């Protein structure tokens, strides 16, 4: 007796992918097959894909994803000359895959924008803005752009694939950072952003999710999707009064929708990131977005020592200045932030060295005192 299940013949590669990826169940597929057959009996020409969408077994976006991105083959799914390995991130703009270039075998992060995103004129401009930003930024602590092109109706670009995790993933997995480790990471990030600012590019979305640590401990800044160019050919995509950035790390001037943003906004967000790294939580929380953003503009400073009493006062002062509500009260450049962090690290090193010296002197003195005591005891006896 043959116990093997009957082999299913799928109408198209797209339908096969939908079932194999469990977007559509075998039962739903069979139901739609019957509907297609009955429709054709009464003279209505329709496709399986159309029926799947009409029956709400697939969304239009899912169908488009299968049609535009993937072309099933023996090596897996392909798009734009790349074999897709796995999905590593997604959002409103599109999806990011780990992929391998078909001819060079180079592993990359492949960012594919959804047609609903690039179909909007402003979003389409933002796509090119991110490409232009990354193309200008060649720095060891910033992800490298490899290529940008169009596949079918979808725009995409490929960039350096970072094997590691984001700061937020690190905290979720390991808990908060030690002060020395956090300051080292923030210092490296500040150097990357200083380079970006010198190229007249403001990140505007600095947060733990956009700072990566690779498997060797190296820092990489990524996701320049809401950058602002401050050069002669810049694209101004933000309207007055429109906020950009992430709610827990956004600067007060971004919340207010001020258009003349500069590097000091990134300094605020980097300070908020440092707070998160050392406490395991954002500075301001609330039951809704409006409540949180209001705190960024008007709430009192919350000392990180409330959540981590081991943070040094020097680091607290650095953080507080980075997150001053008025940007003129902050450090005025990332280079100033770097100098403050380096100074703090040097001071900590000097204090540790002094403590080691004092500890050594204490034990030397203790040894001398003990020897003298034994000598006196011997004489008395």
List keywords for this structure.
381 residues, alpha+beta, Phosphorylase Kinase, domain 1, Transferase(Phosphotransferase), domain 1, 3 domains, six-stranded antiparallel β-sheet, three-stranded antiparallel β-sheet, 13 helices, elongated
Describe the 3D structure.
- The chain is α+β, with helices and mostly antiparallel strands.
- It folds into 3 domains: 13-67, no CATH class; 77-160, Phosphorylase Kinase, domain 1, CATH 3.30.200; 164-345, Orthogonal Bundle (Transferase(Phosphotransferase), domain 1), CATH 1.10.510.10.
- It is built from 13 helices and 11 strands.
- A 6-stranded antiparallel sheet has the order 1-2-3-4-6-5. It has a 3-stranded antiparallel sheet with strand order 7-9-10. The protein has a two-stranded antiparallel ribbon with strand order 8-11.
- The longest helix has 47 residues, at 334-380.
- It starts with 12 loop residues before the first helix and ends with a helix.
């Amino acid at each position: 007796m043959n116990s093997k299940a009957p082999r299913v013949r799928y109408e198209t590669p797209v339908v096969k992918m939908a079932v194999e990826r469990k977007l559509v169940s075998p039962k739903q597929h069979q139901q739609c097959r019957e509907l297609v057959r009955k429709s054709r009996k009464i003279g209505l020409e329709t496709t399986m894909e159309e029926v799947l969408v009409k029956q709400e077994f697939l969304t239009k976006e899912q169908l488009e994803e299968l049609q535009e991105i993937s072309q099933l083959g023996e090596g897996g799914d392909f798009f734009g000359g790349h074999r897709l390995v796995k999905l590593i991130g997604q959002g409103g703009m599109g999806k990011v895959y780990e992929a391998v270039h078909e001819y060079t075998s180079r592993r990359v992060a492949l960012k594919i924008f959804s047609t609903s995103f690039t179909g909007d004129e402003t979003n389409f401009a933002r796509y090119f803005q991110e490409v232009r930003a990354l193309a200008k930024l060649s720095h060891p602590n910033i992800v490298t752009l490899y290529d940008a092109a169009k596949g079918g109706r979808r725009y995409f670009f490929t960039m350096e694939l970072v094997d590691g995790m984001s700061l937020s993933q690190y905290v979720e997995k390991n808990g908060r950072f030690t002060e020395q480790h956090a300051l080292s990471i923030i210092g490296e990030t500040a150097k990357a952003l200083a380079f970006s600012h010198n190229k007249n590019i403001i990140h505007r979305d600095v947060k733990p999710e956009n700072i990566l640590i690779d498997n060797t401990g190296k820092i990489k800044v990524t996701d320049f999707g809401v950058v602002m160019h401050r050069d002669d050919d810049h694209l101004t995509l933000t309207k007055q009064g429109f906020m950009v950035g992430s709610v827990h790390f956004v600067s007060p001037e971004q919340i207010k929708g001020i258009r003349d943003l500069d590097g000091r906004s990134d300094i605020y967000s980097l300070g908020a990131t440092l707070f998160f790294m050392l406490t395991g939580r954002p500075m301001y929380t609330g039951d809704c977005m409006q409540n949180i953003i209001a705190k960024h503009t008007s709430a009192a400073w919350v000392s990180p020592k409330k959540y981590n009493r081991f943070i040094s006062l020097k680091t607290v002062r650095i953080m507080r200045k980075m997150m001053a509500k008025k940007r003129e009260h902050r450090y005025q450049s990332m280079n100033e932030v770097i100098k403050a962090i380096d100074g703090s690290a040097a001071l900590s090193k000097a204090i540790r060295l002094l403590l080691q010296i004092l500890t050594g002197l204490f034990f030397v003195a203790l040894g001398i005192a003990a020897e003298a005591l034994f000598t006196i005891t011997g004489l008395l006896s």
